[in-house]
Design brief:
Blueprint lengths: L4 H19 L16 H6 L6 E2 L6 E2 L16 E4 L6 H12 L4 H20 L24 H4 L5 E4 L4 H7 L3 H13 L2 E2 L4 E3 L11 H8 L3 E3 L9 E8 L3 H12 L5 E8 L1
Parallel strand pairs: 3-9, 4-5, 4-8, 8-9
Antiparallel strand pairs: 1-2, 6-7
Helix pairs in contact: 3-4, 4-7
This protein binds zinc ion (2 copies).
């Protein structure tokens, strides 16, 4: 039998999948039903977060924007948080994605983010027409206070928070990228995965305090694309903590001409 390299790699992948299935039989993380990693019934049970707030001072508002007093400290315009980490299903999904490398779950989280964003748009009485380019001014009065990004949603650009290439190779995938891809398909918005890059891989943020996080992440990102000409950006990640990673990305994007930059995450860790 002739075996080329591709066949061997493919067989090795299958063997690995088979082996993993032996240790972890495929069953729903929520209800243990066999056959899939996250079933439809459990998906319907995940709660969309029904209120947004300023990430800095935690004051509630409509869009998760930073309030006047807080925004001086940020390049980011605001953060949309789709769900609650206290929701057991969400916590389970995020942990399994991070520590068990379950790539399939990124799709589930991506669908969840899409539904959330649709809901946030509906709740603020924006309709489809508002999301198309060129219709901005007609309805501006009715939707006063709405971020520019919503009025021009289809023209914005989705960017997943990048991993350093070494880390991506080690994990096998960037979870933010797969989550973002679902969103791109749902709303039919452009996505860029190659231009915002992570230049440095510093120590993990998880064990650091707020100030240390800021310093640790400083100058870790770079932009390798054309000028952004005021294009609005939606930055996608799985979780936000203090917002320092999203904010560093926003800094680089704005230095390169971005308009508004919003973070969209599954939950606050
Ligand atoms: Zn289930
Ligand atoms: Zn605030």
């Amino acid at each position: 039998m002739f075996l080329n390299k591709r066949t061997i790699v493919k067989s090795a992948e299958k063997l690995k999948a088979l082996f993993l299935d032996l240790i972890f039989p495929v069953e729903c993380l929520g209800c243990n039903k066999e056959g899939m990693w996250f079933c439809h019934d459990c998906f319907k049970k995940i709660q969309l977060k029904d209120s947004q707030y300023c990430l800095h001072c935690k004051k509630e508002n409509n869009f998760g924007e930073f309030c006047e007093d807080c925004k001086e400290d940020y390049f980011l315009d605001g953060v949309w948080i789709a769900g609650d980490y206290e929701d057991k299903l969400i916590a389970e999904l995020i942990k399994s994605l991070k520590y068990r490398f379950m790539r399939e779950l990124s799709g589930t989280l991506g669908r969840f983010l899409s539904l959330f964003l649709r809901d946030l748009i509906n709740k603020n009485r924006l309709v489809n027409r508002d999301l198309e380019n060129g219709k901005i001014w007609r309805r501006l009065e009715k939707i006063k206070g709405s971020p520019e990004v919503f009025l021009n949603l289809k023209e914005s650009l989705i960017i997943p928070v990048p991993l350093h290439k070494k880390r991506k190779r080690w994990r096998g995938f960037n979870q933010a990228e797969i989550i973002a891809r679902e969103l791109k398909n749902y709303f039919d918005i452009d996505m860029s995965t190659e231009k915002l890059i992570r230049i440095k891989h510093k120590k993990a943020q998880a064990k650091l305090g707020e100030e240390e996080r800021k310093n640790n992440i400083k100058n870790c990102f770079g932009w390798q694309g054309d000028r952004l000409n005021k294009r609005n950006i939606i930055l996608v990640d799985d979780v936000v903590t203090t917002g320092s990673t999203l904010n560093e990305c926003a800094k680089v994007l704005k230095e390169n001409g971005a308009g508004e930059v919003w973070g969209l995450v599954v939950a606050k860790g």
